[in-house]
Design brief:
Strand content: 15-25%
CATH class: Alpha Beta
Largest sheet: 7 strands, mixed
Number of strands: 7
Shape: globular
Number of helices: 9
CATH topology: Rossmann fold
Strand order of the largest sheet: 3-2-1-4-5-7-6
Helix content: 25-40%
Distance between the termini: 43 Å
Amino acid sequence: MLPAYDTASAVFAEYGLNVSRETYDILENYAVFLADYNEKVNLTAVTEGTEMFKKHFLDSLLLPNRAAACLPQGAALLDIGSGAGFPGVPTALLRQDLDVTLLDSLQKRITFLEQLCRRLGCHCHAVHGRAEQMAKLPEWREHFDVVTARAVAAMPTLAEYSLPFVKPGGWWLAMKGPGESLRPALQAIRLLGGKAEEEIRYTLPGGDERVIYVVKKCSSTPTKFPRNSSQIRQKPL
């Protein structure tokens, strides 16, 4: 379903990625399972093999590659709004030292992720829950070294969902397209204890532009955040 390994490895080399044939075979297994499962549960609009390779797998694998400085050995990583597993599952496959948790608000997606991880032998924890509720739990709040999110919501909203999970000194990595600026979220980031550090920009094969917004957690998030979902939605920070 995905491009042949020789074709894919040439693309990986161009981007400075080292992906073994064994890992690529696991990604192929992932792609086939996702495409089949997507026929009964809508997880992705991208189902053609080459497009899936570029827009899902390559894009996800570029997170631990481009933001390696934010992912120390053995780091605890939370992927918010995991959906079909991107970028959390490919990141876990490339960096097996990481302790990866996948969080999604829909049980049907968690069911898929649990089946996927068993099929791939990928040791991720898939958890059903809403970010604004889970971040209030003592065992989750400021527990993670790194929090990732891909698309999911507008940046001010996404900041309030994400930063309460990050321990001081840790990182929030928000994966976005080129049309969404970090600027509207700067006030929210400051209120939540973060500081914008870097914008990592790259272009996927075919010309699609991407950016990873890198935010460092400098101080603890005030206990009043995150607010409830209606407040977050109606009055973004």
